[in-house]
Design brief:
Helix content: 40-55%
Number of strands: 16
Bound molecules: beta-D-galactopyranose
Family: Belongs to the bacterial solute-binding protein 1 family.
Distance between the termini: 8 Å
Number of helices: 20
CATH architecture of the largest domain: 3-Layer(aba) Sandwich
Structural class: alpha/beta
Organism: Enterovibrio gelatinilyticus
Main location: periplasm
Strand content: 5-15%
Shape: globular
Largest sheet: 6 strands, mixed
Oligomer: single chain
CATH topology of the largest domain: D-Maltodextrin-Binding Protein, domain 2
Radius of gyration: 21 Å
Protein name: Probable sugar-binding periplasmic protein
CATH superfamily of the largest domain: Periplasmic binding protein-like II
InterPro entries: Bact_solute-bd_prot1, SBP
CATH class of the largest domain: Alpha Beta
């Protein structure tokens, strides 16, 4: 898909003026060269994590101009990026990840950063599964920050204790706990009704019900029978069954406001990637004591991965190029990797970082990652742009959201639409 057709596929529900009004562009006043960075890290934990990088750049004499576009796990930021690029005004740096890196690289927008990769010996530092995403035609064009696990459940310990419910390991146990929590007057499952949050939940349920092999065969190999089969049906029905355990104020609520419900003890659980941990930590909550992290029900052996990365747009100004290279270098700095990932909730992307000072959840994530890699249970995240391209993702989110939000939407028709959505990238 080329950039023009990508632009044409932009959701019309996001008018350009709304995007412009929603961005947060700020510039620190230093004397050095300016580098404009477009990203979507604006929640409490995210902002704390990226602040470290801004500070390090400033210390090195570079002036970070922040172009933050909040919302929809990056979908708004990517829309803005496309518009700016098409009007000939791309930022110097942008947050892009997964297969989309290839799409932008193939269009010739991105700078080759092989020199930084060589200088820091990336081939020895990064797992192969990670580095494959970062290259176009064998050349590095993106730098990775982290590895997020998507299939997590976050629980408020006090609510569980008060209600006398057991932390759920399986989907059946989830529904038993949810009933108890609901009867006690708490919200069992915190969910914001944004399509990507619903899709994130769908992904964890699909992993549990389909298992790793069928999940991959369906979403990565586009197996028609699996895309419309009985396990997909059960996944959708389980998703819809969970709705009765969510609250009436879910529509439109951001993921971080949704996490706050668990932090404040109004809700018992959220099924969300480990950027949610960043919110608990930013609210001074302690892993294991105030909140518990456990694999999303039925997915203990699996690890759905989501890698954040920055790319660098081709620029002529030598000062800008120097700032881009400096930024690329700092992201893989060991000290930054420790600081950033402790705040962000993810695990370091470098294989050589000592995990000793990381909390229990991060240690568990690292163990889970290594175990999943050894047993072939690592899967690229469906809902966070690692497994499918943007066209399929937009279509699939739409299909899942329609089904979840409207009980009259027919399941057979939805299954056909799931298949069509997953194939949309190939059109
Ligand atoms: C994900 C991203 C995470 C986190 C999350 C919510 O797609 O990879 O870093 O920011 O969105 O904004």
């Amino acid at each position: 898909m080329n950039i023009v057709s990508i632009l044409l596929s932009l959701s019309l529900s996001v008018p350009v003026f709304a995007i412009a009004a929603d961005t947060q562009s700020t510039s620190e006043n230093t004397n050095g060269s300016e580098i404009e960075v477009l990203h979507w890290w604006t929640s409490g934990g995210e902002a704390l994590a990226v602040k470290e990088l801004k500070d390090m750049m400033k210390e090195q004499g570079h002036n970070w101009k922040d172009f933050a576009v909040p919302g929809r796990a990056g979908a708004s930021a990517i829309n803005t990026l496309r518009i700016r690029t098409l009007s000939g005004n791309p930022p110097d740096v942008a947050q892009i990840k997964g297969p989309e890196i290839q799409e932008w690289g193939a269009q010739g927008f991105l700078t080759n950063i092989d020199d930084v990769a060589e200088q820091q010996s990336w081939s020895e530092l990064l797992p192969r599964r990670v580095s494959d995403y970062l290259k176009v035609d064998g050349h590095y064009v993106a730098v990775p920050f982290n590895i997020h696990r998507v299939n997590w459940l976050w629980a408020n310990r006090k609510v569980f204790e008060e209600v006398g419910a057991a932390l759920p390991q399986t989907l059946d146990e989830f529904f038993v706990a949810a009933e108890k929590i609901k009867a006690a007057g708490y919200i069992p499952l915190a969910l914001g009704n944004e399509a990507w949050q619903e899709a994130t939940l769908f992904e964890s349920i699909a992993l549990a019900i389909m298992g790793t092999d069928d999940f991959r065969r369906a979403f990565s190999e586009h197996n028609s029978e699996l895309l419309t089969g009985s396990k997909m049906r059960e996944t959708l029905l389980t998703l819809r069954r969970m709705k009765q355990y969510t609250d009436a104020n879910s529509p439109g609520r951001s993921w971080s406001d949704t996490t706050s419900l668990v932090i404040e003890g109004k809700a018992a659980m959220q099924i969300m990637g480990d950027w949610a941990k960043g919110e608990f930590l930013a609210a001074d909550k302690i892993a294991g004591k105030d909140f518990v992290c456990l694999p999303a029900p039925g997915t203990a052996n699996q690890f759905s991965f989501n890698i954040d990365s920055f790319v660098f747009f081709n620029k002529d100004n030598p000062q800008t190029i120097a700032s881009q290279k400096e930024l690329a270098t700092l992201i893989l700095d060991p000290e930054f990797q420790r600081e950033f990932n402790q705040n962000k909730g993810s695990i370091p992307v470098r294989v050589d970082i000592d995990m000793q000072n990381f909390d229990d959840c991060a240690q568990d994530a690292m163990q889970a990652f290594l175990r999943a890699a050894a047993t072939d249970n690592l899967v690229a995240s469906l809902s966070h742009n690692m497994a499918i391209g943007r066209a399929s993702q937009i279509a699939l989110f739409d299909v899942i959201s329609r089904f979840y939000n409207n009980d009259n939407v027919d399941i057979d028709e939805t299954l056909r639409h799931v298949r069509a959505a997953v194939l949309a990238d190939k059109l």
